[in-house]
Amino acid sequence: MEDSRNVLGQFEDACRDVRLVASGMKGELRFGFMMHAAHSVVPELVQLYAKARPDVRLVLDERTPTEIDEMLVAGTLDAAVTFDCGYAPHLQTVLLARERLRIIMREDHPLATVGQIYPEKLREEKVIAAPAATAPALRSAINSYFSAKGIVPHVVLEPRLQHTTRKSHRRVVHRVRL
User: Fold this and answer.
1) 59 and 29 in contact (C-beta within 8 Å)?
2) In whole angstroms, how large is the CA radius of gyration of the chain?
3) Residue 163 · residue 104 · CB < 8 Å
4) How far from 52 is each of 21, 49, 94, 110, 134, CA to CA, in Å?
């Protein structure tokens, strides 16, 4: 009789756990994010989620936007923060933030003291930009910025990861204008 009660108790516990996992209150959430979001929206999202779902283990996975899209479709990620991937009927999306395109340059660059930077001022500049295969939405925004004024950017480096372009010297960040 005692063994039967133990088995029934374990079965009830297992059923409860299954219901909690199915409702998202327990288990694991595989969450992808791109470097761009690592210092902006991800810390707050992680904190809010951990507070709302303390029994869910959050597994964080930094990836490129293309990898994130592929992993979401394959089901190896449950949720992610990435650039707009365009038309994706198989994914539910929520807009978290809008950001303006920005250009980063060395502090000693001649344009570093200019208030606003228009595409024409960058016509002869060498550009470092994300490859279209890695971050299609970002590369499209960069190309659109230049093509609006009939300029083809002189892209000299296409690093797959943002860390590749970081240096220890000071940089100036400008919002670009159309």
Assistant:
1) yes
2) 23
3) no
4) 14, 5, 18, 49, 33
Q: Model-level pTM greater than 0.85?
A: no
Residues in the chain: 178
Rounded alpha-carbon distances, angstroms, from residue 134 to 33, 39, 85, 103: 13, 19, 12, 19
pLDDT at position 169: 43
| Residue 99 pLDDT | 79
Could you write out the DSSP letters of every residue in the chain?
A: -HHHHHHHHHHHHHHHHHHHHHTTSSEEEEEEE-HHHHTTTHHHHHHHHHHH-TTEEEEEEE--HHHHHHHHHHTS-SEEE-S--S--TTS----------EEEEETTSGGGG-SSB-GGGGTT-EEE---TTT-HHHHHHHHHHHHTTT---EEEE--SSGGGG--SS-EEEEEB--
In the structure encoding, which two tokens stand for residue 75, read together? 């089901």
- How do residues 103-156 score in pLDDT, each as one tens digit? 888 888 888 888 788 889 899 999 888 888 888 888 888 999 999 999 999 998
